[in-house]
Amino acid sequence: MNPLPKFEQARVLVVGDVMLDRYWFGDVHRISPEAPVPVLKVSRVDERPGGAANVARNIAALGGQATLLSVVGKDEAGLCLENLLGEYDNLNALLHRDSSVSTIIKLRAIARHQQLLRIDFETPPSHEVLHTVMQDYCIHMPLVDVVILSDYGKGGLVHIEQMIQMARKAGKLVLIDPKGNDYARYAGATLLTPNRSEFREVAGGWQNEAELIRKAEQLRVDLQLDALLVTRSEEGMSLFRQDCVEHEATHTREVFDVSGAGDTVIATLAVMLASGSDMTYAMRIANRAAGIVVGKVGTAVVSRDEIVKDMQDSGFGIQDSEVQRPASRILHPAS
After folding, report:
1. Which of 12, 20, 300, 311 has the most CB atoms around its CB within 10 Å?
2. Catalytic annotation on 263?
3. Over the chain, what is the mean pLDDT?
């Protein structure tokens, strides 16, 4: 079995859209007389970092050194987010306050592990404060091993093309959690990590594995990526690289909440790669970390100890993943 590396020396810079995840937990015993909707009697309120902040929190929980660059409003939610992130000694949160916006909030009402409603509050940051973030990026990017650009489509990554170019020129690995259907802005990154529905939105549907491989390889080549990782929910995840396709099956377990699982995946990949692991083993550990986190309610984190225990309990080894070589023969049957 490959040992799980220590993550204390892994240095990761996270840039992107941060938000505050608020949860109202309670029980439903009746329907409102005012409208045909359930009445949630709130018994507990919880607040957690979300978006790029959850990525940074996952890195810190794994034991890595995280630096977070983003924007919040000059409001109570922004202060709350700063306080939550301040609980981690190995997380340096550089959150620029923008008085012209409100901190992004996702409010979820939950009864017995069932989400009843989600309410979003958001406004895009100003160009002036994003310019300041870019200045900080120029200072902190050379000091890390891996850069994560966490795009939630909230307007915090308007300089993403420049960020990718600068990091790659400096020899840094650039991992991106993408959003939307314009992937051209991610060209030149090391790795993209779309989920199944996000990939389908960009590449279109597929009827079989061979068609999926063709579409993934075409996207990888068009964007000049080193690799493309498609997370496929109950189907596990697939890693596409030049002349190599590797698939890691999901680990069967009870699923409570998939929110934030993508944050755990990209955070685990980053600390693994920053610690010297190859991309195949990093994918296998990220898949295992995602399997752990979906068994928790709400946006959550996974520790290195939890991953080690899960590996021990399942007898996890380092046997080769299911590998198809070369992918080019599938892409070009006539060759």
Report:
1. 12
2. yes
3. 88
